Each structure stands twice: as structure tokens, then as C-alpha cells.
Amino acid sequence: MADPKTKPSEPGGEMSEARKMLNMFFGNFDGTDDRDCFQVFVMKHLHETFQSGMFQGSRLLDLGTGPSIMSLLSASKYFPEITCSDSSQVNRDELQKWLDGDPDVFDWTPYLQYASKLEGNSYTPDDIASRVRAAVKAVIPCDVTQSSPLSSRVDPFDIVGSFFHVEFACATSDQYCAAVKNMTSLLKHGGGLIISGDFKNNPIAGKENFSATFNADLLRETLASCGFTDVDVKLTSMIDQQVPCDFFFVTARKK
Predict the structure, then answer these.
(1) pTM reported for the whole predicted model
(2) Strand residues in 111-213 grouped as ranges (E)
(3) Rounded to a whole number, what is the largest CA-CA distance in the chain?
């Protein structure tokens, strides 16, 4: 039997690379926290971060959103103006299809159900889906390796979040520090930065040396050198999809 999350009816009869990625990395989540996985780690910490009120404002940038809505679910409750961005046109198209209500998209029901559970079931999964669609105002290109990462000039944001993206765009620690500095330019003074990723696994070929040196110490040093304070680093090690992972979730504030 075919995977119910697999929708083969893409243009030309082939599944897009974005959909393949979603099926591979996001298709195994059942909407519960019965096991350790990156979905629970990220969604739980995002919910707690936004619920705490440590970051205020109305405008949030998700840098490197990809084709996923996972990072938008809790954010949409507190930030009514969300800008999504990604370097890949295919990823942006896949995300836009879901935002437009296209029925031929990846099934995000388990994620919406878990977000509802985190919010005490005060909002239904359908409520949260509608909330996300209303909050996302734009899906635009980005390149975190550029001094101006966005394709268009925008006012600084109250919050910049980036999930499993920045380290994949960098091959050295110097490039990573430069990329974080580029992100800093998109934040208001006193604004909040949220970054999450995996120290252990970088799937981009030829980046083994950077993966070997990318750790919590480098992350803290990078944030300090870019002028961030109140840095809080949460770490967890787990076997996710039979692969050893060292996930991190970081919040910081721009001076």
C-alpha cells in the first residue's frame, strides 16, 4: 500500500523534491510525544518560548522555512505578521500550495493535532491551520550567506527564527559566523533570535570538516561575537529515524 502522505500527482506525474523531503523527514510523526524525535523537541520548545512572553512584537521572519509549516504553528498564535523565506523555489512553491489551500499537499494533520495538544486543545487543528494561513503575509527568496539575506528590503523584525537551515548553508565555522551576523541585520535592537538544528548531521557533501567542529561552544561564541545576550542553549541527544542526532534549540536577544 502506498504511503497515504505521498501525493504522486505532481505536474508531469512526478513528485517534487520538496515533497520527497517532507515524506522522508516529516512523514513519520504521528502527532504524539510518545517517542523522542526532532518534531517534539522543536515544537515543544517553540510553544514554551512563545508562551513565556520573553519575546514581544508582531512581526516574525522564518529564515529558511523550506516546504514545512512546523515552525509556524505556535508562532502564528503570537505573531500576526509572519514572513517565510527559502532559497529554493520548489520549497517556496510547496509551502505556498498549502497556504493557498491546495488539496494536493503533504498531510500536516499530525502536526496540527500536536500543536492543538500543546495549547490545551483550546484551538482545534483546523483553527490552527486557518490561523497560520492568516498570519503568513509573504513567502520570499532568501540567502543567509549574503549580507542582505532577503530578496527585498524590509524593516527589521521583532523575531527571526531559523530551523535546520543555517548550518546547511555553511562549509566552515567562519561562514557560519558570517551567516549569523547576516541574520542579525534583520533583527530590531532588543529583538529575539531562535535557532534550532543538529550538530551531528550535515547532509551537504564536502562539509565533513565543519560538521566535526560545529558544537555548542562554537554556537555560543558565534552569538556572543554577533552581539547577542541572554543566550539559552537547550541540547538533547537521541536516535531519530535510526540516526544518532545532537539537536539544539537556542534563544538569544540582540543588544
Answers:
(1) 0.90
(2) 136-141, 157-163, 187-198
(3) 54
Q: CA triplet 232, 153, 145: central angle to 5 degrees?
A: 55
Write out pLDDT tens, residues 3-57. Answer: 333 333 343 346 689 999 999 999 999 999 988 899 999 999 999 999 999 999 9
User: DSSP 3-state helix, strand, coil percentages of the chain (rounded to 5)?
Assistant: 40, 25, 35
CB 43 within 8 A of CB 69: no
Q: Measure the CA–CA gap between 247 and 196, rounded to whole angstroms.
A: 7
Terminus-to-terminus CA distance in the chain, angstroms?
A: 54
Side-chain-facing half-sphere of 201: CA atoms under 13 Å: 17
Q: Left (φ > 0), alpha (ψ -120 to 50) or beta: where does 40 sit?
A: alpha
Strand partners, 255: none
**Residue 180: which H helix or E strand, with range?**
helix 173-184
Burial state string for 43-74 with b = 16 or more CB within 10 A and e = fewer than 16: bebbbebbeeeebeeebbbbbbbbbbbbbbbb
Grid coordinates representing 181 are 551576523
d(CA 3, CA 177): 40
Q: Cβ distance 63 to 162 under 8 Å?
A: yes
The DSSP element (H or E) to which 82 belongs, if any, is strand 81-86
The C-alpha atoms of residue 194 and residue 205 are separated, in whole angstroms, by: 26
Would you tell me how many other CB atoms lie within 10 Å of the CB of residue 35?
13
